Amino acid sequence: MLTRPQARTCVECGLPYGHSDFQYHAGHIENGPAYWSDRGLLCSHACSTAHFERREKEGNPMREPAPNPLERERF
Fold first, then answer.
1. CB atoms near residue 25 (< 10 Å)
2. How many other CB atoms sit within 10 Å of the CB of residue 20?
3. How far is CA 22 from CA 18, 35, 41, in A?
4. Three-class SS of residue 59?
5. How many CB atoms lie within 10 A of CB 64?
6. Which H/E stretch holds residue 40?
7. Which of 53, 35, 54 is nearest to 43 (CA)?
8. Model pTM?
9. In terms of C-beta density within 10 A (0-12 exposed, 13-18 middle, 19 or more buried), how is residue 14 classed?
């Protein structure tokens, strides 16, 4: 069985939410993550770009913006 990644880790590299290298909206953890997709959180611009490119290559691009994770779950 495939294990699902933790809800609070970057879906590309696995960096945990709360790590000092994770990027937050306006630079503050209280504001939530700066990047996300419909599959989960992304820790940085680099991982956001890699995620986009990987999904394009797989033939499974996002068709519409992902919902704001702050509206679904309080960090």
1. 14
2. 6
3. 7, 10, 10
4. coil
5. 6
6. strand 40-42
7. 35
8. 0.81
9. exposed
Give the model confidence (pLDDT) of 29-70 as tens digits.
Answer: 999 999 999 999 999 999 999 999 999 999 999 999 998 877
- CB contact at 8 A, 67 and 37: no
Cα–Cα distance, 44 to 15 (Å, whole number)? 10
Confidence of residue 71 (pLDDT cuts 50, 70, 90): confident
- Region of 14 on the Ramachandran plot (φ > 0 left; ψ -120 to 50 alpha; else beta): left
**Tokens standing for 23?**
């990027």
Q: Which residue has the tokens 């499974």?
A: 60
**Contact (CB, 8 A) for 33 and 23:** yes
Closest CA to 47 of 15, 75, 71: 15
The answer to whether 36 touches 43, Cβ cutoff 8 Å, is no
